[in-house]
Amino acid sequence: MPAERVSDCDFLAGAYDYARAARLMGALRLSEGRLSGPGPFLLMVIPDDGGIHVAGLDISRHALGDFNRFIDAWGSASRTTQEQVSQAPDQPGLARSIVNLISAILRTAGGGVAGLIQGGVSTP
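Below the sequence we write its predicted structure tokens.
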């Protein structure tokens, strides 16, 4: 995403790859949480040699006023991921550690397990 367009909701909605998102959602194997309700769902996909891990939030059951809190936590989780990967990109087990860290951040933001989504992606 171009940095100057990240606050342009019309651009973001128009640039979103709905077909790719639907394929990803269909390939999820969840170990915690569920994808139900109208969304929105915020998912972070973290690949490593052991597969593709997913950590995220289901915001369907939360009030609209909570959305900014979720976005702030999402930004924190994204920054933490980037910092961890840039410090040791080839470290064994890094992706699993990052998933655990991100899940802890999102669990706090989501008000507990109710909003947390964890799992992996089925790949052919």
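Residues 28-121 form one domain.
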